[in-house]
């Protein structure tokens, strides 16, 4: 991001204190189902500012580092309009994102749900955009399945939407209780490691729960939660902003067998510089 624009956006960030309202049984809901919903995590003024930041980052295809922007649903460097573009670690491009209510409340709620000291949690963000009309579905997966299999994790994701996320615009779906299972077999979408997104097949969707969320609301889900999102068939974008919160990962003596991770890394490393 242009440093002048970054300075200007940083100066205009709404300095609002917004403490999130948390249900008394949030922890037990999370332990039981593996996910919880919060009606609001960020105030209107901040959502307006975040939409501006978000649209600018996506218009510039602005990864915070080389290759940090790509379409999750198609091979790297595909032609034509992106259907599920993602930006990794936007807080590196604009550190003011770490000062937002979304970041601060997200860390506090994550610490409570994981039962750990908030100061020990490290966070990193990603933005996943589903463009109006052509936004692609994201198939069933567990987030931990993307991560380095040489470590054990204590982690969850906080997912906020900047637009109303509905069944028509591509809201999330969860399988309650699935966080208690192991990491399932995954493959890259279409069995093509040059597609960043991964999927696990043969999921029994009968117990899936659709989770519509209004703009400014958030979902928190365990890193082993089975989840997916629907395509965006609506006339509006569905702009989602997620932060992952985790304790320092613990090295394993024997890594988990997750061959899709190494296959994906090889394809990532082979990308054209740009
Ligand atoms: Ni996910």
* Stretches with pLDDT under 50, minimum 5 residues: none
Radius of gyration: 18 Å
Q: Provide the list of bound ligands, each named once.
A: nickel (II) ion
Give the helix/strand class.
Answer: alpha+beta
Q: How does the major sheet shape up?
A: 7 strands, antiparallel
Q: Tell me, what's the shape?
A: globular
Strand content: 15-25%
Number of helices: 6
Distance between the termini: 15 Å
Helix content: 10-25%
The sequence of SSEs as H and E is HHEHEEHHEEEEEEEEEEEEH
Biggest sheet strand line-up: 1-12-7-14-4-3-2
Q: How many strands in all?
A: 15
Structure description:
By secondary structure, the chain is an alpha+beta fold. Helices cover 23% and strands 23% of the residues. Strands 1-12-7-14-4-3-2 form a seven-stranded antiparallel sheet. It is globular, with a radius of gyration of 18 Å. The mean pLDDT is 96. It binds nickel (II) ion (NI). The site of nickel (II) ion has 3 residues, from loops. Nickel (II) ion binds next to loops.
Salient structural properties:
single chain; 274 residues; alpha+beta; seven-stranded antiparallel beta sheet; four-stranded antiparallel beta sheet; 6 helices; 23% helix; 23% strand; globular; binds nickel (II) ion
């Amino acid at each position: 991001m242009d440093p002048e624009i970054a300075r200007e956006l940083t100066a205009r960030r709404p300095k609002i204190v917004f403490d999130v309202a948390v249900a008394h049984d949030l922890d037990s809901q999370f332990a039981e189902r593996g996910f919880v919903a919060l009606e609001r995590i960020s105030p209107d003024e901040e959502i307006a500012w975040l939409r501006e930041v978000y649209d600018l980052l996506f218009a510039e295809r602005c990864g915070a580092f080389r290759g940090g922007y790509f379409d999750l649903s198609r091979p790297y460097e595909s032609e034509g309009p992106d259907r599920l573009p993602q930006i990794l670690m936007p807080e590196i491009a604009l550190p003011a994102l770490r000062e937002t209510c979304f970041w601060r409340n997200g860390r506090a709620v994550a610490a409570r749900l994981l039962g750990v000291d908030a100061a020990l949690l490290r966070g990193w963000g990603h933005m996943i955009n589903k463009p109006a009309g052509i936004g692609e579905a994201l198939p069933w997966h567990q987030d931990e399945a993307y991560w380095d299999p040489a470590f054990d994790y204590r982690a969850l994701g906080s997912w906020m939407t900047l637009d109303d996320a509905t069944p028509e615009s591509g809201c999330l779906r969860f399988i309650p209780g699935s966080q208690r299972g192991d990491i399932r077999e995954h493959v890259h979408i279409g069995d093509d490691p040059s597609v960043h997104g991964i999927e696990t097949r043969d999921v029994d969707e009968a117990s899936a729960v659709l989770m519509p969320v209004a703009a400014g609301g958030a979902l928190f889900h365990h890193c082993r939660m089975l989840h997916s999102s629907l395509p965006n068939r609506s006339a509006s974008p569905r702009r989602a902003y997620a932060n992952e919160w985790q304790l320092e990962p613990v090295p394993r003596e024997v890594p988990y067998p997750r061959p899709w991770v190494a296959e994906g890394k090889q394809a990532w490393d082979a990308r054209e510089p740009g």
